Amino acid sequence: MSIDINKRLSENLSQVLDIPAEKCYSLIETPPDTGFGDFAIPCFAFTKESRKNPAQIASDFERLFSKKAKNNEVIQKVKSNGPYLNMFVNKVYIVREVVRHVFKSRFPGLHGTGKTVIIDYSSPNIAKPFGVGHLRSTVIGSSLYKIFSFLGYKVIGINHLGDWGTQFGKLITAYKRWGSTEQLKSDPVKYLFNLYVRFHSEAENTPELEDEARSWFSRLENNDEEAGRLWGQFRDLSVKEFKKIYGRLGVEFDYYTGESFYSSVLEDTIKSMKEIGITSESDGALIVPLGDDMQPALLRKSDDATLYLTRDIAAALYRHRTFHFDLALYVVGSPQALHFRQLFSVLGKMGLGWNENCHHVPFGHVRFAEGSMSTRKGNIVFLEEVLDKASELALSIIEEKNPGLNHKNEVAEAVGVSSVIFNSLKNYRIKDVAFVWDEVLNFNGETGPYLQYTHARINSLLKKFKEIHGELRFEEGLSFGAEGYGIVLLINNFENVVIHASKEFEPSIISRYLLDLASQFNSFYNTHRIITDDHSLSLSRALVVYGVKMVLKKGLELLGLKAVEEM
């Protein structure tokens, strides 16, 4: 939905200065100081054909432009500054053209046509409550899903559940010894979690419980009917509970294929690696040597047990064979960096060619005052409780600021949940996130509620415009002022911002952009009356505001936030 300002500038310069438009286009940059000009061209690139120094070329260009380009529609004037030709654009023209384009077009999303992206995100552990530790993987992955979809890619979201391993032997042991069918049905995940915690507490004084757990997991691996039934029940109940959390977060997946899904193909995977000749034995274990700068990849321990890495190799092979992806992203915390270096190195040694299209998307932790989170000890911050508290606090703020608001509970839920999401996405993902309630729910800070409130304010303005002046529409010949120039430049850059975010796998690029856009709008709103008795003036400013609303709403959606209509 953007216009290519640089293209229009370069075509304009080409016509006046008789130089190639393509060459101008590639050279256009933004001066470090707006006092120098709005755009600039360094003239070093023209020295060869003109046999003059860059400063002389810039001066000649200025003189020629001033002579030939009277009343230019796009560029008001040019001025040489050393080797640079600085351009001062017609800001009214830019405002009008951007507003025209925004109002009459929609987001195209053609950049990824024909390409497939796989995103592996969230990946909570079965039979354990959804802790806040899984929040960032979930919301970063979900935002990337939305970003790539917006750009026209075919996106496949996979929830690689932690649904296999010795812990299920422990859980079955605990359930067989102390389990209650009634309690399992009433609050399944938290009940299973408490059983898991109890197992570790009891095992400290009763070591034979560990042997019993290994026995149950062995039965599970060998397709024992009872072990399989219990495991399946625990898994189904867990996924059902997880989907409630995902529903509140606005997160969806195309597949819930966890570790267990690939257990049946592990032997074939190992066999193929042996046949390629990249494995070796080490103290009874099967490894893939990865060179001096990385420790070997362990595929199978001396007791024949496989590992996460083995299952991830099998999963990568399955996903490429099934989906033929062009890009595969693993949204997993930064402590797993070595694991993914090993995974991609093993895939590379297999000679597959597509390992370079696989990327680890690391992120930092969420830090609460409650301290460390250890599932084994039972000290964990439940995400559901965080979302509940956020919604309750948002409701109390709404009750204070706007007690007459319709649908207060729904708005509070949208604001509260969005505040938690935005707090995880507003800064570079690799940074840890400090969670401070007063900051997260501040309506005036760098927060989700601030962006939502800005959107709601714009919505109110546009309703008022309609009441006074009728339907919003773009009218040819409508006069615009230059005061909206800064805002429309931001609006016009939205698509480039989203493309940048996709290339960096970094939703925070959109977050920072939206905060900048909201700040610019609020400054504009505080210094210019949007709705006046003057129809033309009101219409021109309302159209600029409408552009902000369109971009702000879409940007919020790409981050996973709800653009509420009123607050």
The order of strands across the largest sheet is: 5-4-9-10
CATH architecture classification of the domain at 383-559:
Orthogonal Bundle
Using only CA atoms, what is the Rg?
29 Å
**Superfamily at the CATH H level of the domain at 383-559?**
Isoleucyl-tRNA Synthetase, Domain 1
Provide the CATH topology of the domain at 383-559: Isoleucyl-tRNA Synthetase, Domain 1
Overall strand count: 12
What percent of residues are in strands?
5-15%
Low-confidence stretches: 370-377
CATH class of the domain at 383-559 reads Mainly Alpha
Overall morphology: flat
Return the average pLDDT rounded to an integer: 92
**Structural class per helix/strand content?**
alpha/beta
* Residue share in helix: 40-55%
Largest sheet report? 4 strands, parallel
Structure description:
- The protein is of the alpha/beta class and 567 residues long.
- Among the domains are: 85 residues, Arginyl tRNA synthetase N-terminal domain (Gyrase A, domain 2, 2-Layer Sandwich); 70 residues, no CATH class; 177 residues, Isoleucyl-tRNA Synthetase, Domain 1, CATH 1.10.730.
- 55% of the residues lie in helices and 9% in strands.
- The chain has 22 helices and 12 strands.
- It has a 4-stranded parallel β-sheet. It has a 3-stranded antiparallel β-sheet with strand order 1-3-2. A 3-stranded antiparallel β-sheet has the order 6-7-8.
- Helix 5 crosses helix 19 and helix 20 runs antiparallel to helix 21.
- About 1% of the residues have low confidence.
